[in-house]
Amino acid sequence: MTTMEHDIRLEDYLDDKLQSTTDFDHLDTLLSSVEHQRSQLQSQLDDATAALAQARQSESDRQNALMAQIDEFQSLQSSIDVRLQIIASSDAPDEAIKRLEAPMGQLRKVDLAYKYLLLLQDVAKLRQEARSHLPESPKQALEPYTKLKQLCLRLKELQNNADGAAVHLVNFVEGVTETLWDEMKATMSAELEAVLKARKWPNVDPDNAEVDEEWLGCFEKLIDLQVPEVLYSPTVVTLLPFEVMAQIFVKEFRFHFMSDKPTSAPQAIGAHCFPWFTALLEKWEDFLRDNFGGVLAARFAETGVGERMVYMDPVCGFITAMLPVVREKVRDTLEATRGDAAFLSSLMGQLMSFDETLRGGFAYDGGDDDVEEGWGGLTSEVLQDHFRTWLEAEKQFALERYQGIMKTQDARMIDYDFAGVGKTKPTFAAVRVTDLLKSVTTQYERVRRFSHKLRFLIDIQLTILDEYHDYLRGTLEAYLSITSTVGRAFGVTKEQIAALEGTGALETLCILSPSFFFSFSFFHPRKKLTGKKFFITMWEQLQSRAKVTEDQSNLAGGMSYDHVRNRTSAVVGTEDNDNGVLFDETIAAYSARRQTAQKLLSEALASSHHKIFRAYLHRAQWTTISDEVDNLAITAELDEPLRILKRDLDFLSRALGTAPFRRVWRQALEKLNDILWTEVLMSHKFTASGAAQFARDLAAIEGVVERYIPDGSSALGSLSDAVRLLNLPLEGEGMTLKKATDMVYTDNTEAKKMLEEVGVADGGLTAANARQILGRRVENAE
Questions:
Q1: Strand, helix or coil for residue 300
Q2: Please, are residues 452 and 390 in contact by the beta-carbon 8 Å criterion?
Q3: Could you point out which of 185, 472, 666, 669 has its C-alpha 20 to 30 Å from the C-alpha of 534?
Q4: Which of 722, 613, 593 is nearest to 668 (CA)?
Q5: Confidence of residue 371 (pLDDT cuts 50, 70, 90)
Q6: 407/401 Cα distance (integer angstroms)
Q7: What pLDDT, on a 0 to 100 scale, did the predictor assign at position 527?
Q8: Which numeric CATH code is attached to 620-780?
Q9: Backbone angles phi, psi at 427, to 5 degrees
Q10: What angle do CA 234, 235, 239 make, to 5 degrees?
Q11: Cβ count near 317 (within 10 Å)
């Protein structure tokens, strides 16, 4: 502060304190006050000066200490550097480390043991806490148990990451957890057992008995105890209340079917054991659902297991509790009957029926989420170990039955009573083989596993079809060897030739054609036979699997993709689903043989016609002159052909279906048409009476054909039109022979006009044909 500023402030101070003359009376007081203030300010100034000096001294001391520490650090650093150099060039540190390894290891073990003890202490506390809540409050008991379970799972996870360390600790905690859970279930189950004993269960009326509050309360407590286990278990959990309630029935089951009683015999399992089980379910079905269905729905309906009937339906829960003893009975039965293939076959059918009863009658799903496939049943469990044995047994039975069928005396005989008129009649062997194939289907169509089904198809049914195909092919080849020139040259017995006389050849070929048709149609999805839907589903499953399976060496049941494709269809695994069916290759082979048999049948008829018409073909009396052209008798040489023709038509009409019958005869009649056209019409001259006689004979042939095949004479249509043209009159008002001849030789236009007037233009006759036909008349030749 400057002197001027000080003077101004002093002046202001005096002006403030001495504003009037009266203020001078207090001047001493004012001076005293000013002196006092000055003393205080001086004291403060002295204190501040002393503090400043002390601070400066302290700062100087700290600075000196810091410098000393820096000097000491630098000295220490230099010393360390020197020692490090010495240590680096010395073996002393390694020896020191080795000496410390053992003590440090012991220290780590002590530390680990201490942590183990703390963990075990926590385990013991959780176990004691869970026990303290039972049986009054199972929900509260679940809290410490859940913590213990989570601890156990965490230890296992850590153990896996640590390459299996702390085995004893993990096993101990896991054992404690499992023991605690068993104790909890036993404690709660004992409470329900006491209630059931007091109610004299199961000596209650299932139709009128009602569950009281105490019983229902124990039931709910057990369900509450199991809710977490049910929700998080990867496998099906048996509900405790049903397990407790089923104990008495399990004992009864063991008494009846697993003791020394006659009903315990393995062969009685289907007659007594399974019916007893289903009767038990039917008896208590309504009682269980009426009393306990609401509890299960309340606990599980809105959870992840709400779709599983084993947790939603009391009857299914009860079945789950009873199945272990039934499963044990099945295992004992299989062990006791090991090597008995016939019984194994029977048992598999009984097991599949039992499984179907549980699935269909009681909606049991086994806890399986697969809605389409559903519960595999006890059958699937048995087949895991015994499928190959069962398959071989069924294959042996089927092949033995097939051999027996083929050895029967009537195997090659046609079963005319199999179907009505117009239906193909197979042989007795074909019918029985088809029935055998169907019976094999019934043996495995209820099996759930696709690979098992495919094995049955390929190993049994396809094998039977292949053998039957080989048999029919052999018969066909034998027929060809007998009827061919080469075959006759190598020697044919009289008996073989005699067997083909009459309708023998037709019968042989009829045996083949319907048999081929009837057998291959068994697997064809377009045929309305038993199993159609089943085989279509099989085909769709095979296609789906073949498209997604990466391992081509194991498409199903150990069979490679190539093996399955070669035995079934070439389009397996492709997008050509519509053009493929199961066993395309077999169907193609059967179809080819059937077509060959029908072709040979037509050829046999044509050959027979050529022989029986031989005398008629060489008849030389077509140029006779007679005034009688009406009411003509049939030519004598035609009597025998008509008789044979009628015989063959009658036989084939009873043996073949309408379609193949008409197809075969159309081909045969077309060849007969060609024979009569070439060797009669085009080989002889005709008078008016001769033409009329030929027309009468043709009408007789057509009459026989029409009797068996309506409109079948159309196969002789071209010859019929030709004979009509051949029979034009010499004179008259309409078209005459001369007029027609003039028109046909004028030009093609006139020829076509003539054919239209005669009414044969639509029959396929050409102008050239007309000239040839009219030229066969003797009158034109003259």
A1: helix
A2: no
A3: 472
A4: 613
A5: very low
A6: 10
A7: 47
A8: 1.20.58.1970
A9: -80, 165
A10: 120
A11: 28
Phi, psi of 563 (to 5 degrees): -65, -45
Half-sphere exposure of 600 (CA within 13 A, CB side): 25
Specify the pLDDT at position 354. Answer: 95
Contact 648/608 with Cβ under 8 angstroms?
A: yes
620 DSSP 8-state letter:
-
Q: For residue 769, how far is the Cα from the chain centroid? A: 64
**b/e code 689-724 from CB counts within 10 Å (16+ = b):** bbbbbbbbbbebbbebbeebbeebbbbbbbbbbbbb
User: Could you tell me which of 153, 130, 150, 126 has the C-alpha nearest to residue 141?
Assistant: 130
Place of tokens 């007081």: 29
Six token digits for residue 526: 């377009």
**Bond from prior residue into 144 cis (ω within 30 degrees of 0):** no
* Distance, CA of 256 to CA of 278 (rounded, Å): 15
CB 276 within 8 A of CB 270: no
**pLDDT at residue 520, as a whole number:** 47
**b/e map 150-188, b = 16+ CB within 10 Å:** ebbeebeeebeeeeeebeebbebbbebbeebbeebbeeb
Rounded to the nearest 5°, which phi and psi values hold at 753?
-65, -40
534-556 per-position pLDDT tens digit: 888 888 888 888 877 777 777 77
Determine if the peptide bond prior to 525 is cis (ω within 30°): no
DSSP state, residue 2: -
Q: Write the DSSP assignment of 229-290 as a string of letters.
A: HHHH-SS----HHHHHHHHHHHHHHHHHHSSSSGGGSGGGIIIIIHHHHHHHHHHHHHHHHH
Residue 556's φ and ψ, nearest 5 degrees, are -165, 130
The number of residues in the chain equals: 782
Tokens of 26: 């207090």
> Tens digits of per-residue pLDDT, 627-676?
666 778 899 899 999 999 998 888 888 888 888 889 989 999 999 999 99
